[in-house]
Here is the input.
Amino acid sequence: MMRLVLMGPPGAGKGTQAVGLSREYGVPHISTGDMFRAAVAAGSQLGLEARRYMDAGDLVPDEVTLGIVRERLAQPDVASGFILDGFPRTIPQASGLQEALRDSNLQLDAVVLIDVPDAELVKRAVGRRVCRECGRVWHVEFNPPPGGACSCGGELIQRDDDRAETVMKRLSAYHEQTEPLKGYYASLGLLLSVDGMGGPEAVHRRVFDALGRCNSR
Ligand code: AP5
Ligand code: MG
Here is the structure.
């Protein structure tokens, strides 16, 4: 059982860490960014609306985001818990989440903040490549795909919002709208800050250690 929020700036490694944590704890990985990208790919009304904001590096409006998360949290597979990746990102989203959990008599176990300096984030986002087929995430320098294609054989593409100027806008949105959540969750006694520098395995160990300490407190 684990109800976890993974928080951190664009490119910090939330998605990378969420994949392993979801497997270890046996709970679903819920990424609002992935849900919006799936809606864009499907060409749905939600996708059309979300795309305008995503391509500009802005946040999708709170009501829209809260709507899809409430729906997702009502699915049966979250009974054992969840790893939320990239949600909440604003104070209204965080209070909306608290409300939804309270209605079901549930609580978060922890909020893990993956901390990475801005200069490194730009490198991580701009060099990221994603498999069109299986969604696996690579990095041209830090986690290069063998032979230039995904291990499943799928074609690798760059996310539309991973161009340098859009990454800078996403970073300012993070600093202005999402960073205030640090204080919000610290005051609830839920915040665990983890150094996100070093390779994915080193970061994973730090996250796991921090969660171990939080479970035994
Ligand atoms: P979203 O998809 O959530 O993007 P993000 O938060 O900007 O984060 P990223 O997915 O870019 O980075 P990540 O932390 O997952 O890093 P990753 O593991 O891939 O959101 C996209 C957009 O959707 C938003 O801009 C917004 O418009 C909208 N949206 C989503 N949620 C919303 C919400 N709640 N409210 C409103 N709008 C919302 O790693 C990055 C790269 O680095 C990869 O190439 C990886 O291989 C590499 N890497 C990972 N870890 C390491 C490491 N330790 N060392 C070296 N390289 C590493
Ligand atoms: Mg991600």
Notes: The beta strands are 2-7, 29-31, 81-85, 110-115, 128-131, 137-139, 156-157, 191-195. Residues 28 and 82 are 5 Å apart (CA to CA). Residues 200-215 form the longest helix (16 residues).
